[in-house]
């Protein structure tokens, strides 16, 4: 598909195919190859418009985070965040903010991580995006538990579990239950763990 698209000069199809290949390498945990393909998709995205470029940068940021290139990941997310904000794409803004929180958490900068997660959650709540609220509640809950703010962590993990149950997301329910288990275990509340 990529070869044919390149021969035809179909930039949209080339960009989409490069992104898809990058995602496949990400799933296979071959993060350096994912970076390589996402970098190529970014180059194509530059000719496809700001939103396409921002989408490619979002994927590149994810790959950079996985390779431990945190400064590059942050740069990608900041660039796409500006485009998404300018275009009024709130769900994408929330996603970029959440991803920034993930990077800062991976770097051990918990204050920035919580700040970005909370900004993301506010937007997700305002858009009614319940599926993605679950992951942000979990991220906030797990981070609070790690920081020793178990009561706050329990609240967030409980919110995630309730929402996951309401929308029928079994995988997220399991994640939320693990979060609740860790919190109850942390405060030695074995009957609820």
Number of strands: 0
Radius of gyration (Å): 18 Å
Shape: elongated
Structural class computed from helices and strand pairing: mainly alpha
pLDDT under 50 segments (min length 5)?
A: none
Mean pLDDT: 90
The portion of residues forming beta strands comes to under 5%
Number of helical segments with 4 or more residues: 10
List keywords for this structure.
193 residues; mainly alpha; 10 helices
Structure description:
The structure is a single chain. With about 190 residues, the chain is mostly helical. Helix content is about 85%, strand content about 0%. The protein has ten helices and no strands. The protein has helices at about 1-10, 10-25, 30-45, 50-65, 70-85, 90-105, 110-125, 130-145, 150-165, 170-185. Helix 3 (about 30-45) runs antiparallel to helix 4 (about 50-65), helix 4 (about 50-65) packs antiparallel against helix 5 (about 70-85) and helix 5 packs antiparallel against helix 6 (about 90-105). The longest helix has 18 residues, at about 50-65. The model has no long low-confidence stretch (mean pLDDT about 90).
